[in-house]
């Protein structure tokens, strides 16, 4: 069974940085395209960044130039470095495959104050 455990969220002022981590198990991690998703209050869950098995990356327009996704296949980890955070980045952040598997982790809360 796929398990995804996100960590690294917190409260930060606008302009600050956070690094999110995701530990994945129960899947052949190295062959999957992995993504970071976020869900703001009252909104749907959206893909913000993804990285393929050969490290080709995708970013949503709202985060391009500020967020960087990376992965460590030896550790089954995927990361999201978030710089120059804005209040509109406030959300619960999740990792999953892209497209997503039905199993979601608990997510990690990111709150950006203005």
Can you characterise this structure?
It is a single chain. The chain has 114 residues and is mostly beta strands. The chain is built from no helices and ten strands. The protein has strands at residues 3-7, 10-13, 18-25, 34-39, 45-51, 57-59, 67-72, 77-82, 91-97, 108-113. Strands 2-10-9-4-5-6 form a six-stranded mixed β-sheet, with no helix packed on it. A hairpin with a 5-residue loop joins strand 5 (45-51) and strand 6 (57-59). The chain is globular. The termini are far apart.
End-to-end Cα distance, whole Å, is 40 Å
Strand and helix order: EEEEEEEEEE
Low-confidence stretches: none
Q: How much helical structure, as a percent, in the residues?
A: under 10%
Radius of gyration: 13 Å
Itemize the secondary structure elements and their pairings:
Layout: E1 3-7, E2 10-13, E3 18-25, E4 34-39, E5 45-51, E6 57-59, E7 67-72, E8 77-82, E9 91-97, E10 108-113
Parallel strand pairs: 2-10
Antiparallel strand pairs: 1-3, 3-8, 4-5, 4-9, 5-6, 7-8, 9-10
């Amino acid at each position: 069974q796929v398990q995804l455990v996100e960590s690294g969220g917190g409260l930060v002022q606008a302009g600050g940085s956070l690094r999110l981590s995701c530990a994945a198990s129960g899947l052949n991690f190295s062959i999957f395209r992995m993504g970071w998703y976020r869900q703001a209050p009252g909104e749907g869950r959206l893909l913000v960044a993804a990285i393929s098995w050969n490290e080709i990356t995708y970013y949503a327009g709202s985060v391009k130039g500020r967020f960087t996704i990376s992965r460590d296949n030896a550790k089954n980890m995927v990361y999201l470095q978030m710089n120059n955070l804005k209040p509109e980045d406030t959300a619960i952040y999740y990792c999953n495959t892209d497209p997503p598997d039905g199993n979601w982790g608990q997510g990690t809360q990111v709150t950006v104050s203005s």
